[in-house]
Every structure is written in C-alpha cells, then in structure tokens.
Amino acid sequence: MIQSxxxxxxxxxxxxxxxxxLVLVLxxxxxxxxxxxxxxxxxxxxxxxxxxxxxxxxxxxxxxWQTFCVPPALPTPPPMPARMTVTLNVxxxxxxxxxxxxxxxSFVLDRFALIFAGLALTAGLVVVLMSMAELAGGRLPVxxxxxxxxxxxxxAVLLAASRDLIMLVVSLELVSLPVFALxxxxxxxxxxxxxxxxxxxxxxxxxxxxxxxxSLLYGLTGSVHLSDIATALSGGxxxxxxxxxxxxxxxxxxxxxxxxxxxxATVLVLAGFAFKVAAVPFHSWAGDVYEGAPVPxxxxxSVISKAAGFAxxxxxxxxxxxxxxxxxxxxVAVVAALTMTAGNVLALRQRRAVRVLAxxxxxxxxxxxxxxxxxxxxxxxxxxxxxxxxYLVFYAAMNLVAFGVVMxxxxxxxRDLLDDYRGLIFRRPAAAxxxxxxLICLAGLPPGxxxxxxxxxxxxxxxxxxxxxxxxxMAVNTVIGLYYYIAWTAKLFTPAAAGEVAxxxxxxxxxAAVGVALAVTLVFSVVxxxxxxxxx
Length: 536
Prior knowledge:
Helix 1 packs antiparallel against helix 4. The chain is built from 20 helices and 2 strands. It is mainly alpha-helical. The longest helix is centred in the middle third of the chain and has 32 residues. Strands 1-2 form a two-stranded antiparallel ribbon. It is 67% helix and 2% strand. One of its GO terms (biological process) is ATP synthesis coupled electron transport. Its EC number is 7.1.1.-. Its main location: membrane.
C-alpha cells in the first residue's frame, strides 16, 4: 500500500514549523546586536501572515480535503503470478463525496478546521506584535520566545484538523508544552516561576486523565480514529475493523455503547479537556497563571490555548462520542452553569486588570460550553456546535483588544491595578476608547454588538434545546458580569488624581496589535454575518 501525502493540505502547519526552525537558525548565527530581535520578530510575523494567507486561499477553494488516510479493509485477494504486483493508492485529496466509504483519515481540512486555523493565526498575529514590545527590553531570549510561540500556533492549527485520538493528544501537548516555557521565561521573576509550575502541574494532571479516557476508548473500539469510534460505540462495525469483542465484554448487560466503561471513558476525556479550558472544578489555576505570565502569554492562554482546547473537546464529544450525548450532555450543562457563575463571582473581587480578565475568561468558557449541552436535544446537532464556535470567535477578538490595552498601560505602570486606568481617556484617548469598546462588547451591551450577537446566538441555542434553567443561569450571570465590566469602564472616564503622569512613550507594535484586534471586533459588530454564515 502506498499512502500519499498532499502537502497543500498541511501547508499551514508546515509553514509554521519551517519558520520556527528558521528563527532558531537565525538566532544562532546572527550577531546579537541591538535590533537583531526585531528581525526575528519580523520573520515570525511574516510566517504567521503567510499561514493566514494560505488558510484564506484554502477557505476560498472550499471543499473537504484530507490526508494521512487509512483505506477500508479489503478481502483477501486471490493468488497472483509472481511477476504481478498490486499497488493500492489511497484517495487523499478527494472531496467528501469522492472519498471511499470506510476510509479513516487523521487530518481533515474542513470548514471547522479552517475556522479554528484562521482564529489561531489571527490571534497569533496580535500576540506576535505584543511580543515585539515585550522583547524590546532585551531581558528575554528572543529566538526561543518566537520558536515556542510558533510551535504553539502549529499545534493549534493541527489540533482542529485532527481526526484521531493520537494526533489530538499530540497536538494538544504541542499547544501546551511551549506555554510552560513562555510563562517561565522571566527567570528571575518569582511570580512567573510560580505561574509556570502551577500551569505545568495542572497540564500534566489533565493529560494523564485524558490519556486514561483515551486508552479506554481505544480498548473498547479497537481504533483511534474518531469516525471508527463513533461507528463502534453506536453499535456498528467500522469498515476497516472486524467485530470488537472488547466492547461487548466491557458493556455486558448494557446497550451497545452505553456501558459503564464507556461512561467512565467519556467523563475522563471531558475532565481532561475541562482542565485545558479552565472549566469548573478545574479552574483555580487561571488567576495566578494569568497574573504571573507576561501579558502576551496571558493573551495566548486566553484565546489560542482556549480555542485549541475547545476544538479538541468539540471534536471528541460531537464526533467520536455523539452516541453518548445522553451521558455527557447533562454533565456539560452543569459544568457550564458552574463555570460561568464561578468566573463572574470571582471577577467581582479582583483589583488587578489581568486577574479580572482571567476570571472573565473562565466565565466566557461557561458561555461557550453551554450550547454543547443541547447537542442531542436540537434537530441538528451542528447548530449547537455552530453557536459555541461563533461565541468563541466573537470572544477572541474582543478579549485581544482588552489584553492589548492592558499591555500598553502596564508598560507605564507595572502595578496592574484597576486604579491605574482612572482618567485614561484624558491621557491616551485612543487606548481608552478601544478598551471601553472591548469591555462593553464583553458585557454584551450596545454599541458593542459583537458581544450582544454572541450572547443572543448562545441563548437562542439553549432555549431551542429546551434547557430553560440553563438559559436563566446565563441571563443572571450576564447581569453579574455587567458590574465589573461597567465599573472598569467608568474608571476610564473618571478624572485622575493630581500629579498623574503620562507614562512611557507609546509602543508602536502594541498599538498595531490593538488596532488589528479592534478592526476585527468592529467588523464583527457591523457585519456579524461574516461569522454566523461561516459556522452555519
């Protein structure tokens, strides 16, 4: 069997990997002079832009493209003459309607994967711009920073296109492992070391839990491909596999796919991803890690890492474990309600800007999870998935604006207190206006229509799914969130105390990062159909 690889399908992660290697080579051989770090930043920025361009071209091309495929099992061929050989070519790049029935692929480039790739790369563009300002002081190793950042982006792009459990776990670790080092890059900062250690321990535990669940799923079904697992757990036999006796053994006395071991595996996988997205009860690390990490890394955790975690969670639950929705949907509903409540209540008590955004991010995870709870209740499960993805895309743009302005202010005042934003409209009108718009969007109030549309989409999905109690919890939490968002916004327009200083000169890369994120948020507010049509 010859298994071909279409490099145009995996072009984006290849570009990111090659640029990451190029950055390390340049860092090793270029003389370390003032301005050399800027060159590495531009190379990294160019790689991200190139990946974003290829993603846009793939989206325009459309279709369903895949590679790294395993063909269906074939009957044993009759004996052939010794001189005769047979080569089986696998259709790798065919559209969905041309793919052989039973073919299982590890890498699928569909609309879901393209949306998450675009989200990760756009957010990566903003994070790279913020990193240029973070690295300008010369206190951090530039080459290692950009290399790790590109590895994280490559993992995020790969994860959304992964369609087997091994590739999912490896991609998720490729997202997570570089973040430990990025968080601890300030070697002599005690808070950064503490944050990196907490993040490392949490990630190790979550990976162990997830691997336990993944191993159970493999033992039950005999396959790592999500499509084969779904077929086996729904009572069928995958085209590539024979009967799976282990599934019948473990599920003795229960309907196919609904045995106790399957339920345990489902809960373990869900718990592992809950760590990654900071969902209750695995959320306690968020505040300290966000505060101790450099601001660009906190932004990366809040958007790129979270998006990758949700991509994996959605793929596993709605593809491999769709037949087990009766098991995981009630758990997701309860976790979503607790997550949005805990995040909003904890955000009320914070006095530091990054910690407010950290607990706000936890609350937003609850909103993103909520539509998945009605996956099995609505006529079309993809509507629930679309609502979660739409909210995640809206949230990413709004949150990046806030982190960009926080970095601008933190360069002038390292205390990171909310009181530092008092009177910001009089010192930096553009930054204050951008932050105010971002906070209003996150609160879901006009004129921040992006946030309003996001909440309406999620609320409608929950109501259509018949979970009225979850809709009420979401409405109450939206009101709670209004308090700290509006209180922070009010500080921007409150006159500052006498003797207030203007701070350091403005940073052009950070200003550009805020501008990019703000432009995307404005587009989403004016033309939300751009997102809603994409996730439909």
